[in-house]
Amino acid sequence: MNDAWTIGIIGGSGLYAIEGLEDTQWRRVDTPWGAPSDELLFGRVGHVNIVFLPRHGRGHVIPPSELNARANIDALKRSGCTDILAISSIGSLQEELEPGRFVVVEQFIDRTVGRPSSFFGTGMVAHVSMADPVCPRLSAFAAEAITHAGGQMSKGATYLAMEGPQFSSRAESLLYRQWGADVIGMTAMPEAKLAREAELPYALIGMVTDYDCWRESEAHVEVSEVIAQMHANGDLARRTVAAFLATLPDERTPSPIDTVLDAALITDPARRDPAVLAKLDAVMARVGGQSA
Question: What pTM, to 2 d.p., does this model score?
Answer without folding.
Answer: 0.95
